[in-house]
Amino acid sequence: MDSNLFSVDYFKDALRLQINKRSDRFSPNQTMNSYYHTVVSAIIQDRINKNFELIRRIRNLDAAYKAVKEEIMVQEQQQQQ
Fold first, then answer.
1. Is 66 helix (H, G, I), strand (E, B) or coil?
2. CB-based burial of residue 14 (10 Å sphere; 0-12 exposed, 13-18 middle, 19+ buried)?
3. Three-state DSSP class for residue 81
4. CA distance linking residue 78 with residue 43, whole number of Å
5. CA distance 28 to 20
6. pLDDT in tens, 27-63
7. pLDDT at 81 over 60
8. pLDDT at site 43
């Protein structure tokens, strides 16, 4: 795992953790959407001086979101078979 804060691996782990924590109340997609919007809002409100860092964080969050969503879709397809 990439130990870099705000790396793709960091966000993937965070998304999976949120999904596990909220599995009794929300679907994985609802949880991911909530987490995604919360993080983006926090990033935007954070006063980061370097625009590059902001873009890197959002790109990594987006890549993690897409990767975990694909994993969920594959798992759901396997369960339907």
1. helix
2. middle
3. coil
4. 35
5. 8
6. 999 999 999 999 988 877 776 556 778 888 899 999 9
7. yes
8. 78
Cα gap 71→50, rounded to integer Å: 32
State residue 50's pLDDT score.
63
Residue with tokens 């999976």: 16
- Going by the DSSP 8-state scheme, the letter that residue 22 receives in this structure is T
In a 10 Å sphere around its CB, with 0-12 CB exposed, 13-18 middle and 19+ buried, how is residue 15 labelled?
buried
Higher pLDDT, residue 52 or 18: 18
Give how far Cα 70 sits from Cα of 4, 28, 38, 50, 75, Å.
Answer: 23, 11, 21, 31, 9
Mean pLDDT over each residue of the chain, to the nearest integer: 88
Listed residue (1, 7, 5, 34) closest to 19, CA to CA: 34
**CA 17, CA 10: separation in Å to the nearest integer?**
11
